[in-house]
Amino acid sequence: MASVDSNAQSRVVHMYDGRPTFSCANCSAVIALQDELISKSFSGRDGRGYLMHSSVNVRMGNKEDRPLLTGVHTVADVFCLGCGDRVGWFYHKASDHSQKYKEGKYLLERERLVKDNAWKLDG
Ligand SMILES: [Zn+2]
């Protein structure tokens, strides 16, 4: 018999209505819908980052003030619900007025994501 996924991960979504998603590179949980992408030209901590309207299957860490390229922001790291890996951060507040549009958005590290198209064939 095929093995069954542990119940610990039963809340984690691996498919999202057949829509294209970004998934965790480590455990393949859906992290965001590609529809929710705002911009690909952001910098994450380890490389490029994606600015997203929303994210799923993540939990948020503690708020902290962090100096970023565009000034000090109040952010919270976000972690994959499936494996606990850090996948990016959430912008609570931006100090610079020109950066306010990021508030309430997610920055996801491109390195931590796999682009997943629902119609892709396995193998
Ligand atoms: Zn994961």
Automatic annotation (TrEMBL):
<protein>
    <submittedName>
        <fullName>Yippee-domain-containing protein</fullName>
    </submittedName>
</protein>
